[in-house]
Structure formats: C-alpha cells, structure tokens
Amino acid sequence: MNARSRLIALAAGVLLAAIPARAAEPSSTRTESGIASGMVYFGATDRIRGFDPVTSADVPSAHAIYKVFEGLYEYEYLTRPYTVRPNLAAAMPEVSPDGLTYTFRLKQGVRFADDPCFPGGKGRELTAEDFVYSWKRVADVKTKSNCFWIFEDRIAGINDYHTASMKRRVSYDEPVAGLQAVDRYTLRVQLTQPYPQLIWVLTMSYTFVVPREAVEKYGAEFLNHPVGTGPYIVGDWRFRNYGITYVRNPNWRGDTYPTSGEPGDKAKGLLADAGKPIPFIDEIRQFVISDSSTDWLIRSARTVRHRARQFQRSHYRAKRFDARITAAWHPAPESGGVVHDLFGIQHGRPGRWHGDGPNHRHAAPQTPASAQPLHRHPEVVRVLQPPPDAGQQPDSARHCWSRR
Questions:
Q1: SS3 assignment, position 258
Q2: Per-residue pLDDT reduced to its tens digit, 371-387
Q3: pLDDT tens across 335-346, in order?
Q4: Where do the structural domains in the chain lie, given as residue ranges?
Q5: Strand runs (DSSP E) across 31-108, as ranges?
Q6: How far from 27 is each of 206, 262, 277, CA to CA, in Å?
Q7: CATH number for the segment(s) 3-288
C-alpha cells in the first residue's frame, strides 16, 4: 500500500471515529442545563492493541484513543463537505507564502489527566514541547511506530532522526530541524516540500500528544496506561479480552455541541443539543465482541429484558398479556409490511433493531407466520411476570409497522 492509499484509509478511519455508536441501553437523567447526569453508555468494541497513538493503525485502537487523547485539529461534526477545526490548537495555522513553514499556536490552560507520573499526581499544562516529543516518537523505530509515513520526506530532518533510531537509541532531546517549540505555546514545523494534506493528517490519532513523564514512567506498559488530555480516562481495563470502561476526565477543558450544520439537520433533530456542554455521557462501558452474530444476540437479549421490565411497570394484567402480544402479530392489510412485536424486536432471521414509528424500514422483511410467539420466549417468561395486583390496562397494545 502506497502512502496515498494509506492516507485515504486512515482519513476514513478518522471520519468513522467521529460517528457516535448507538447506545444499547443508556440510562440518565437530564439536568436543567441539558447535561446528562449519571449517564452510562453500553456498547461493543473489538480487541484493541493498546493506547499508544503511534501504534494506532487499526480502527478499534484508534476509536479508543480518540476518547483519551487529542491532537491539534479535528473534523467539524456536522459540516459537509468535511472541514477541519482547531482542537488543541487555538486557531488554524499560519502558513508561509511558499507553503513550507507552519506555525501553530496552542490553547492555554489545557491539562493532562491526573496521574502518578506527575509530581503530586496532578496533571500539568500542555506545552509545545509535548508535540515535539510526541512527533519524534512517530519517527523512532524503537516505539514500534507504524505511522512514520505521515511525516517521511516531509518534515526537515525527520528522516535523519528515523535512520539514526535504527542504529542506536536516540535521545528525544536531539534536535530535529523541522520541529521547533518557539515558546511555551507556539509550535513551528518546517517542511521540505509543500504538504497541503498536513492539516488533515493532524486529525489522525498518530499525531496525538502524549506526556513524556508518562512514557518514561511506564515504559513498554505505556500502551496499557494512557495519560492524555481528552474527555475521558480509562477507568477499568483489567480484563483485556472482556471489556473496557471510560470515565469522564475532570481535567478536560470542555466544549459545546455544534450550533450549526447542514440544511435539514435541525429537522432531523441533530441540532437539538446545540450549544450544550459535552460530553453528555459520564461513563462508557464497552464489551469486547469480535463476532457480529454474538453482538446481535447480546443486543437483542438486552432489549427484550429492558422492554419486558418496561411492560411490567406498565401494570398489564396477566390474563390480558397474550391478547396484547397477539394483537401485534397481524399487520394491517394495507401496510404490505413486516410486523415488529410489542418490544420492538422483529422475529425470524436476525436483523437490525427498530424503534417505534410507522416509517422505519428494514433491509430484510420477515414473514409474521414464521415468528415465535413472544410470550413463550424464555427471556420473557423469566423476566416478565406482571404483579397480581396490576392496575388498569392501557388503551392499546404497543406495536409498529415497517414497509418493505
């Protein structure tokens, strides 16, 4: 794969990371400010290689790193065609007329997460030297970096540093002509040739900043002990093949949800949270699930249990349960569509889960006759037992239709 192909592939990964996955069972309460209090997101992930940005070539690792680390720039969430906006940078770079010198000014007051690698365990402020150090790690073969191609033949002196690292242990204090911390908050990059893709490259996880103290304290274990400036920190990752938990980083500087987007975004509800503080989620729990069929089974079982509890709380009478469920199996003659049961689950072959509403569509419509009666499903029999003193039933069963 040539450098151009790799650049396109990694850019695609960056865009995918910006798309939020759907929570299986979020739970929260909204405060008056619109921030979710105590919200927990349950989701799935693949096994990740670790949290070192210079080895984040696979998509699962990159997705994990985006939660904990940050770079100079990021993509605008709702704007199309895709555009880049400052993240840790205070503004877009100042570029010389010949396109060879880029000057980046950093936001002030950005702090790394608290960690024992810092004096007193308190995260320190981010500086331009942190980027010089982090980008030298990209060029050092001893880090097992798989991303040197993004800077190769581009930054002045970086090739010499890379070559030297093949022969000996290089010092991160050795100068690289094209990487200079002008002052505490100013970074200057000197190129060997125009590289207009640089701004887009700087959205990639490879270029995210790490603190030298953490790398030196944890050594080879740094990939298992991440310390970044991002909105989350790793709360629990003891069982690598089981799951991972992220919790809100109290040191994060904060940001707000976009206030503008494309035509039609408002009607779709994509701007309902415009201007509200992010992140909305306090804790993220992801389970390692590499097989798609296992993922579907877990999500379906969880949805059945959740909706069964909702049904139980709605105080249906036990003797009316069969009638309420059965009523949902028969589609309206004019619908020409597929039936979803009371719990929003479509039975028959596994398919995408649907919510309520008459306009949901399904890629693989099913035949209602092939569906197993839901009230005999072991998950429902085990969980769904309406109390003997159940009150008045609602007026209609809950069901929805999907057109082919």
A1: coil
A2: 443 333 343 333 333 34
A3: 333 333 333 333
A4: 3-288, 292-403
A5: 36-45, 73-75, 84-86, 94-95, 101-105
A6: 33, 29, 18
A7: 3.40.190.10
